[in-house]
Amino acid sequence: MSTHANTKMLSEADGYDLLRKFNVPAPVFEIVTSPEAAAKAAGKIGYPVVMKIVSPQIIHKSDAGGVIVNIKTDEEAKAAYNKIVTSVKAYNSAAEIKGIIVEEMAKPGLELIIGGKIDPAFGRVITFGLGGTLVEFFKDVGIRILPCSDDELRSLIKQIRGYTLIAGYRGEAPKDEEFLFQTLKNACAFFEKNDNVTEFDINPLRLYEKGGCAVDARVIIQ
Ligand code: ADP
Ligand code: MG
């Protein structure tokens, strides 16, 4: 994902807020600017939590040591705050640190990606595939031109090789394909109704046997 001089990346928090308006579920979160506030927020949200860097210059937060998952106590929350800030500064000394986002930790699930971009020839397109850390490795994604019908979205889901993981691999219970379809449709509506959004990705969307949840959101606006 690239940002150009005339575009701006929204914070993960602002991305979640926008997506929630289109019924894409996202974690409960709070933005904090001190270790003590991190522990307080985590206590309020309920352990375990995930903490991540909030910086406009850090596009891939994990690469910068900017994500810590499974934080279980106030002490861990305070230590995680300092660890993230130190790692990110070492990674990019010019990065402006706006704070840390403390999020409810989503349970494990199948990690998928939903993305949108503007193709020079076709205009707004939606992409869908396997997500999380597997996304670059497998390159298992499909694409549709917007606007697109329910049938086209359903075929997009079934088209990826990873569909077998959604349908229930080797006796595993199937994942919630209906929720996925609805969320894909909601993401399309979000992209089509926000003219200023030029690119976005939800990576990952965690999909469960029932429901699912976005646990990262990058939204680029012009
Ligand atoms: P990056 O900017 O590196 O893509 P992410 O926000 O996607 O950072 O976090 C990296 C990984 O951490 C995610 O792919 C997901 O597996 C895990 N993760 C992030 N946020 C949460 C959360 N709220 N609950 C559970 N796991 C999370
Ligand atoms: Mg991510």
What would you note in describing this structure?
The protein is of the alpha+beta class. The chain has helices at residues 12-21, 35-45, 74-91, 135-138, 150-159, 163-167, 177-193; strands spanning 8-9, 29-32, 49-54, 67-71, 99-104, 110-119, 123-130, 141-145, 197-207, 212-214, 218-221. 34% of the residues lie in helices and 29% in strands. Strands 1, 6, 7, 8, 9, 10 and 11 form a seven-stranded antiparallel β-sheet that branches. A hairpin with a 4-residue loop joins strand 9 (197-207) and strand 10 (212-214). The longest helix is centred in the middle third of the chain and has 18 residues, at 74-91. The model has no long low-confidence stretch (mean pLDDT 95). Residues 27, 50, 52, 60-62, 67, 69, 103, 105-106, 111, 132, 204, 215-216 line the site of adenosine-5'-diphosphate (ADP). Residues 27, 50, 52, 60-62, 67, 69, 103, 105-106, 111, 132, 204, 215-216 line the site of adenosine-5'-diphosphate.
